Amino acid sequence: MEISWSRKWKKRPALLSESVLITKNYGESVFMNRTQVLDKNISFGMLIRFSLPTIASMIFMSIYSSVDGVFVSRLVGTSALSAVNLIMPLIMFSMAIGTMFGSGGNALVAKLIGEGREQRARQIFSLLIAVAFGVSLLLSVFGLIFINPLLRFLGADESLFVYCADYARPVLILMPFSVFGMIFQMSFITVGKPHLGLIVSVLGGVTNIILDYVFIALFGMGVRGAAIATGIGYSIPALIGLLYFAVNRKDSLYLVKPVPDLRAVWKSCSNGASEMVTSLSASVVALLLNNILMRMAGSDGVASITIIMYAQGILSAAYMGYSIGISPLISYNYGKQDSFRLKKIYSLSLNTILAASVITFALSLLLADILVGIFVPRGTAVYDMAVRGYRIFAVAFLFMGFNGFSSALFTALNNGKVSAILSFFRTLIFIVAAVLTLPLILGVTGVWLAIPLAEVLGVVMTIYYFRKMKPVYQYA
User: Fold this and answer.
1) Over the stretch 148-160, which tens digit does the pLDDT of each residue have?
2) How is 275-308 classified by DSSP, letter by letter?
3) Are 290 and 70 in contact (CB under 8 A)?
4) What are the tens digits of pLDDT across the range 20-74?
5) How many C-beta neighbours within 10 Å does residue 33 have?
6) Cβ(325)–Cβ(194) under 8 Å?
7) How far is CA 19 from the centre of its chain?
8) What is the reported pLDDT for 275?
9) Which of 431, 398, 360, 455 is nearest to 59 (CA)?
10) Does the CA dihedral 76-81-84-86 come out positive or negative?
11) What is the pLDDT of residue 15?
């Protein structure tokens, strides 16, 4: 964008004239009402209020995702907890599919809404829902057919194989629901209803917690009960979201008859590939960490990394929630070509993330023993290993917020290439290199240091691309 263009927009007040013009051109008198949630003046308070439901939703989802670990560890045993972690890459994979369609698709859809092309946005939205269902169903069937070699690949040995199979089957069967749940969570944000995403997330989470107790504590179903409870918890947001977008016609997005458009599908998937790469990389890293720790420290090592990743998920969920929560604002204002508002979002976000990073780092050091103690009793080998590892791992919190925001920013700007490069190097190349080398030098300590080192290297790339792409998008 030209500097003169950005100054022109800076001098302009609210986008009333653009909304009226689009209303005139498209004959949609309700356009302003539908888009006004994305068209408000940008301020720190506005960004926090807009993203807060998503932040709360992500934190809550992280907490109730950890509930399985608490119940399984306390009521079944740490070996069963290790088995749950070995199957975790499957859950991450299904979330990766949903995140790809959700983030990439909603970035495109929000941009179309910003351009005033609401009907086109609905058609693309409906098409992506149909494609996501077909892909997730195919993967679910494929996983169930080849479940035994799949479990071996994930690292299950004879002592954990039964636990792993019991947990994996319900996860695979309910995979389409976890995919849909992620897509609809992001779609609620796009239509300016993030509080609905929070409500359905809380509802699904409470259901999961209750069913964990019922299935594990009362019915004695073990890890199978934990998996079924988790699957049902994910199904509730998916079903409510499907019903909402199928019936409601008051928002800018709802389900209509999809129009085949392979180019739009490819653009959405490629744009959301960075978020998918992040989740898939997490699966690969989890697989590597599990295998390395199994060799170096046995099932206690796998249980320790499981606890660390659960605790990490709770404290880092706020970063993810904020980045996802404000993404539609970025996409919308990019579609409107309002560089002034993009600059405000960018600068306010960096300051917010800096403050949150320092607070999260401090809390992780102070609360390490408390967080680990939720899963295992004090004084055990797993407890001592997990606390020591978590305090080393905590350095990553100083950097991961910026890295996550950079990926979300470029996805929202519909630049999937840059977003994918950042995610690929940060969450796969850097981490895999660190995981494969540091343990050889430092032993188990090297495992805990691998992710912090990867985050530091990721920040270096983030700074480079922030500066490189600034003249292109005028966000700073």
Assistant:
1) 999 988 877 787 8
2) HHHHHHHHHHHHHHHHHHHHHHHHHHHHHHHHHH
3) no
4) 333 333 334 333 444 556 667 788 888 888 888 888 877 877 776 677 778 888 8
5) 13
6) yes
7) 32
8) 63
9) 360
10) negative
11) 37
Residue recorded with tokens 């506005």: 46
| Sequence-distant contacts of 142-148: CB under 8 A, at least 24 apart | 143/90, 143/168, 143/172, 143/175, 144/169, 144/172, 144/173, 147/172
| Helix axes of 400-412 and 273-335: crossing angle, nearest 10 degrees | 60
| Max Cα distance, the chain (Å) | 70
What's the Cα-to-Cα distance from 159 to each of 143, 155, 228, rounded to whole Å?
22, 11, 22
3-state secondary structure of 49: helix
Cβ 349 vs Cβ 322: under 8 Å: yes
> Which residue type is seen at 319?
Y
Helical ranges in 221-338 per DSSP H: 222-247, 262-271, 273-335
Portion of the chain with pLDDT greater than 70, in percent: 90
From 217, 226, 235, select the one nearest 174 (Cα to Cα). Answer: 235
Q: Nearest 5 degrees, angle CA 323-CA 328-CA 329?
A: 90
Summarised one tens digit per residue, pLDDT across range 259-317 is 888 888 888 887 776 667 666 777 777 778 887 887 888 777 888 888 888 777 777 78
User: Which pair of tokens denotes residue 343?
Assistant: 């600059």
